[in-house]
Each structure stands twice: as structure tokens, then as C-alpha cells.
Amino acid sequence: TGRGERRIDFVNLPRQCTIRIYTISGKFVKALNHFASQDNGRESWDLTTTYGLEVSYGIYFFHINAPGIGQKLGRFAIIK
């Protein structure tokens, strides 16, 4: 509380894509489906798992799959 909303924003997304988030050990955390009317969209993740639990601090990987466009892999860290 007092620090603002806990979230990560994925930006510059194509109109349609799926974002999958994994722990550093490869465990699946959550999938976000992005649908927008224009390119350069934004999708927010509230730092919860598929089961609604808050994620722990650490390093995570993301995989973005955009049909007909391609894929993107990346990583990010959640710190205290």
C-alpha cells in the first residue's frame, strides 16, 4: 500500500498476441491474451498467477506469440 498499483505493462504489442509468463525454473505462471483494435497496444499484468496468487520476487521470462508475425522472448525481475 502507498506505492501504487503492482503491475507490469507489456507495450508496443501487435493487435493480437498471447503473452506467457514463466519462472526462472520454467514453471508456467500465467497467460495473457491481448486483443486490440490497433498496433502498439498495451497489456497489463497484475502480478498474479493463473490461480490468483501473488507472485514472488525474482526473475521471470515472457514469451509473446503473435500469429502471422512471430515470437519474442524476454525476461524481467520483480524486486522489493
SSE arrangement, N to C: EEEEEE
> Can you tell me the overall shape?
globular
The major beta sheet can be summarized as: 4 strands, antiparallel
Q: Which class do the helix and strand fractions yield?
A: mainly beta
Strand order of the largest sheet: 3-2-5-6
* β-sheet strand percentage: over 45%
Low-pLDDT runs = none
Total E-strand runs = 6
Q: What helical percentage do the residues reach?
A: under 10%
How would you state the average pLDDT, rounded?
92
Radius of gyration: 13 Å
The count of helical stretches stands at 0
Gap between N and C termini, in Å? 13 Å
Summed up:
The chain is an all-beta fold and 80 residues long. Helix content is 0%, strand content 56%.
Essential attributes:
single chain; 0% helix; two-stranded antiparallel sheet; 4-stranded antiparallel sheet; globular; mainly beta
Q: Can you walk through the features of this model?
A:
The chain is an all-beta fold and 80 residues long. The mean pLDDT is 92. It is globular, with a radius of gyration of 13 Å. The chain is built from no helices and six strands. The strands form two sheets. Strands 3-2-5-6 form a four-stranded antiparallel sheet, with no helix packed on it.
Topology at a glance:
Blueprint: E1 8-13, E2 16-23, E3 28-35, E4 41-45, E5 58-66, E6 70-78
Antiparallel strand pairs: 1-4, 2-3, 2-5, 5-6
